[in-house]
Structures are given as C-alpha cells and as structure tokens.
Specification:
With about 425 residues, the chain is an alpha+beta fold. It has a 6-stranded antiparallel beta barrel. Strands 3-4 form a two-stranded antiparallel ribbon. The protein has a two-stranded antiparallel sheet with strand order 9-10.
C-alpha cells in the first residue's frame, strides 16, 4: 500500500494519544473482572472463592503511525512508555483515563517506509471521564438554576408591575413581605452552624465536629482570615436586606430577592450547611387578605408574587448547593435526590396553578438536572451497612478490622458519633467499601 493511501486511511480512523503523543487507533480490547483467591479443602468437593476486590482494568490498543514524523512519534511513544508513573490516555471510545503503560510494541512493515504499527498495553489507574461528566452535570445544574431565576423574575414582573402602580400601600406590603423573608437569611448567617462550617476549610486536624462536607482545604487559611471573610459576607448580606426598603421599582426588588439566597450560600463554605440554612427560605408563605377592592387586591397580588419569587430564588441556590455537595454513600445521595425532587415538584405545582408557565417549565428542567446529577453520583458510591460487634472497641481497631485501613477511622467516627473514639458503640453504620 502506498504512503498516500495510508494517509487517507489514517484520516478514516479515530485518533488517540498517550502522554500527549498522538497515534491512529485501529482496534482495542480489554480485560476486566474480580480478583479471586481459590481455597481448596480436604474432603470438600467445591472450593471456596474469596473475593479480593475489583481487578485493574487492562486495555490493549492497536494502531499505527504514518507520515514524515512517524519515527519521531515512535521515539516519543517509547519515551512515554519508559517514563515512571501513570500517564494520560485519550481514546475515542474508552475515554480519558490515567493509566500505567505495561508494555509498548512497535513494528515496521516489510518493504514499506513511513509506517509503524504499534500496540500498547495499559492498566487503568484512574477514570477521568467520570470527573468530566461530573463537571458537565454541575454546569448543566448551574445553567438550569440561572434559567429558572430568569423565568421566575419574568413571571414576577408580569404580575407585579400593575399592582406596583396602584400606590404606596401595595408597594409597602411587597417590601415588607420580602423583608420578613430576608430576616431568616440574616438569622441563618449568624447561626452556630454557619460559624462552625466556616472552619471546615482550615488546614490540619481540627476535630470531628469541625470536619464537614467541604472537600477542599485552603492551606493559607487561618482563623483570622476565616472570621474576617464571614464578617464581610454578613455585612454584605445585611446591606442587601436593608436595601429592600429603599427600592423604587419592582425589577430592582426582584433582582435583590434573587441575590440574597445566593449571597447566603456563598458565605458558607460547607455545602451540607448551605442546604441546612437555605431550606427554611423555601417554605415562605405569608397570609394575604383576599378582597375585590383595588388597593387590597394589589396588596394581595404583590405579597403572593413576592413570596413565590423568594421561594424560587432559594430553590435555585439549593440546586447549586446540591451540585457542590459530596455524598459519602449511595443512600445519602438518593435521600437528597428524593427530598429536593419533592421540593421542586411542590413549587412547580404552585407555579402551574398560578399560571406561571415559564417558571413551571424552568422548575421541571431544573428538577431533571439536579436528580440526574445526584443519581449519577449515587450509582458510583458504596452502600451504607450496619456493623455489629460484641463489645465496645477502639475506632482505630475497627478501621483495621472493617477496611484493613486505619486511615478510614475518621469516617467511622463521624458516622457512629461516639462519646469517645476509644469506645465505639456495638452497632453503627459504615460504608460497604
């Protein structure tokens, strides 16, 4: 086959790379399964097979290099295969994984120059495609939350403009409804839960009560910087709440209401605490007097519209908190999925009854994205099981017994919440893997 024909053929195949060195992929295979230890015993017809965990996924990839740079690419792949540690494999069907190169074979075809056939054997170290999928799902949740805010603001403006024009009594009622709702946010940011969550990102071992759902630690953070940031966030939130009484038009009122839950969420470093402080903001429903008088009707419309916008802005912030939340078991992720889905369904029903079609559609779309994100994470997490022992044992010993890994002790302590880690309860919850 001529070189030009090979170049044309190469363009018909998908491309891959290892450690940044590209090659043409012709075919691939793999080996997967479980690690099993087979135990034979005297006078027993069947052996006992002991499960030792998942076997590392082995990939065998065949391809070729062609063109003027094929020999340079071959040498680069040789160097990549001889480099220590795992490298990044980009494959058109396998995806993006970090893998260790077990072997690399190459061969030049007889009588043909400018073509090098290759075969790689790689052992997966980490699947990065799931991380990319998580990132894309988080982006979809954020986009749906923003779309829901826009739809809710649009429906609010359509109802509030006419009522706003009635005069000062209706305007004052709408502002007071928003201020009464915002009082909960002002109280939440000063709560002990938020103060405790603010130290979750501090480096070092600060005890089990300071360890929360936050998965990131700031090495440069200190107690002073944490308290200063929380104080600044509290002052900013207070300023936004105070501005509710000085607003002169309905669009500014809507913009401020949408800002308050998100400001509260960003002031709290721990996603689990974010969910706890945002939840009370989703159940706001003040009483409004139903009347046919023009002023009374305008007051009722503004109070109802403001309370609906307040709840929906809190739901958008909760959706963002769910995307940042890191569940540790499939049960936790599934429980939150069902809970948030119920919240969004209830508000979507209210929007449908009120004729807010755009908000209803946006809430349904947001529900799909949030539940899909949590379902995807639940499918990749271990189950939660009950561990029972005959006596109170130290947490370090249980970590070694259950997982053969004493570094898993903090998770056992967090789940069991014992009076003292040296005396764990005889029955407690733990992860299955």
């Amino acid at each position: 086959m001529q070189l030009d024909g090979l170049k044309t053929l190469a363009g018909e195949f998908l491309q891959g790379s290892f450690r940044g060195v590209p090659f043409v992929v012709m075919g691939n295979g793999g080996l997967a399964g479980r690690k099993q230890a087979v135990h034979d015993y005297p006078y027993r017809d069947t052996p006992w097979v002991e499960d030792l965990g998942r076997r590392g996924r082995l990939y065998r990839i065949t391809g070729f290099l062609c063109g003027a740079t094929c020999y340079v690419q071959r040498d680069l792949l040789i160097s990549a295969s001889e480099a220590s540690g795992p490298g990044l494999l980009v494959h058109p069907t396998i995806g993006i994984i970090r893998a260790a190169c077990m072997s690399f074979e190459w061969r030049e075809r007889d009588g043909v120059t400018g073509v090098v056939d290759i075969q790689l054997e790689l052992l997966e170290q980490r699947n990065l495609l799931t991380s990319l999928a998580k990132t894309s799902l988080d982006a979809a949740v954020a986009a749906s939350a923003v779309a829901m805010q826009v739809a809710a603001s649009s429906d609010f403006s359509g109802r509030a403009v006419s009522a706003w024009s009635v005069g000062a009594p209706a305007i004052a009622a709408g502002k007071n409804a928003a201020s009464n709702w915002a009082v909960t946010a002002a109280s939440s940011i000063r709560s002990p839960a938020v103060m405790g969550a603010s130290v979750a990102g501090l480096p070092g071992n600060n005890g089990r009560y300071a360890t929360r759902n936050s998965g990131t630690t700031d090495p440069s953070a200190s107690v002073d910087t944490v308290w200063s940031a929380l104080s600044a966030a509290t002052a900013s939130l207070d300023g936004q709440i105070g501005s509710l009484q000085t607003i002169i038009n309905s669009s500014d009122l809507a913009a401020t209401i949408l800002t308050i839950p998100e400001s509260l969420r960003q002031a709290v470093a721990d996603p689990g605490t974010q969910l706890a402080v945002l939840l009370p903001l989703t159940v706001y429903s003040p009483d409004s007097i139903q009347t046919t008088a023009p002023i009374g009707a305008a007051i009722s419309v503004l109070i109802t519209s403001v309370s609906a916008l307040c709840r929906r802005s809190a739901l958008a912030a909760i959706a963002q908190a769910c995307a940042d939340w890191q569940p540790t078991s499939s049960q936790e992720a599934e429980a939150l999925r069902l809970f948030v889905a119920e919240l969004l369904d209830a508000e979507a029903l209210i929007a449908a009854d009120a004729g807010d079609d755009a908000t209803w559609q946006a809430l349904r779309a947001l529900r799909v994205q949030v539940t899909q994100d949590l379902s995807e994470r639940a499918s990749r997490l271990p189950d939660q099981i009950t561990i029972t022992r005959n006596a109170c044992l130290p947490a370090l010993l249980l970590g070694q017994q259950v997982y053969a890994d004493a570094t898993r002790t903090p998770d056992l302590i967090r789940r069991a919440n014992p009076i003292h880690p040296a005396f764990m309860p005889t029955s407690f919850e733990a992860l299955s893997a």
